Amino acid sequence: MTNPDSDAILLHSATPETTAAVAERLATCCPDAAVVYLEGDLGAGKSVFARAFLKALGVSGSIKSPTYTLIETYPLQDGRDAVHMDLYRIADPDELDYLALDAVLEHLRVMLVEWPQRGAGRLPAADVIVALVFDDDGRVLKMRAITARGDAWLRTFGQSHSAVAEV
Ligand SMILES: Nc1ncnc2c1ncn2[C@@H]1O[C@H](COP(=O)(O)OP(=O)(O)OP(=O)(O)O)[C@@H](O)[C@H]1O
Ligand SMILES: [Mg+2]
Question: Which own/partner contact pairs does 15-18 have at CB distance under 8 Å and 24+ positions apart?
Answer without folding.
Answer: 15/138, 16/45, 16/48, 18/138, 18/164
